[in-house]
Amino acid sequence: MKTTAAPFHPTPDQVHVEWIHAVDTDDIDVLAASQSGWQLQYEQLSGGPFEGCIRHIQLPGVRLVFESANQALRQRGQIGSTDYGFAMALDLGGEAIFNGQRLDPNTIMVGKGDKLDLCTPPHFSMIAVVVSADLLQPLWERMYHKPMASWLDQQIVLHAQPAAVAALKALHLGAMRRAASFDQSTLQSPACLQLRDDVLIEWIETLPPQVSTAELETVAARKHIVDRACEIMMSEPSETLSMLELCRQVGASRRKLSYCFQDVLGTSPAKYLRASRLNGVRRDLKAARDASVSVQDVATRWGFDHLSQFSQDYKHLFGELPSATLRLNLKRIK
User: Fold this and answer.
1) Are 34 and 54 in contact (CB under 8 A)?
2) Any idea where the domains of the chain sit in the sequence?
3) Is the dihedral of CA 42, 47, 48, 51 positive or negative?
4) In DSSP terms, which residues pair with 40 in a beta bridge?
5) How far apart are alpha carbons 157 and 302 in whole angstroms?
6) pTM here?
7) What is the pLDDT of residues 2-49, one digit of tens each?
């Protein structure tokens, strides 16, 4: 007999007015902010103009997701403190890291939605489901006749069988196409709920039967060092902090700090700091509301003292000069 999910009746705060959500944009912050109910921040890490898209379909208790971007990104934030996420890459195209763990074409990202940290390469796309605990818990118990696995409350990368991964990808994308043909009045219909159940159960059944969390403690320790270093580096962005001073405050050797950054973010502390600060400049320039804002003032506030080198670095990362970003923003708000 086919397993079905428990009936789910959303509360008012779980009902999304825009239940089919599609965004195609050249603005990374628009991509992050447009995802209803989630608190996310994206940073661009590779050079060139940005293009990204998302497709969300909100069914009762489950959100189906497709996302792609042409540039390398770091995505941080939360997608619901009481929700759980299951995701996998469609097009990997390079090194991707989920909470300090490497992905490959047959891995699934799993975990509670309160601590997302994903670094993706250029030309990356992925699919995901985000499911409420109210729906997942009784379904899990019905499928396995035992309480929900404790490792679901962590962020873990699991290896699945290639054939199962291929089938899941096809089912998920097909379900998104089919769900888009429904209208809002039929979201509680048997056909819609069955489609939701089929996709969710397929994700769960693709998970490996045995899960080891032995490496998570080591991963968490490295990520703690990186998070602490990032916090220190960005606490006073206008001030230059030497690597030796950063190591002293973090309590790690230079070699260990560099290793942790490569392991968790796929880059060095210096490169990440520069990219993160350039992203900060870009956000501030796009937030400018009048012509009194100058590129030099914003750059200085983010620790860039040499304006010509800053402008070159900015153009290399974003594909335009900072003055162009400011000018286009002021033109847009007039």
Assistant:
1) yes
2) 12-206, 216-333
3) negative
4) 77
5) 35
6) 0.90
7) 444 444 333 434 434 358 999 999 999 999 999 989 999 999 999 999
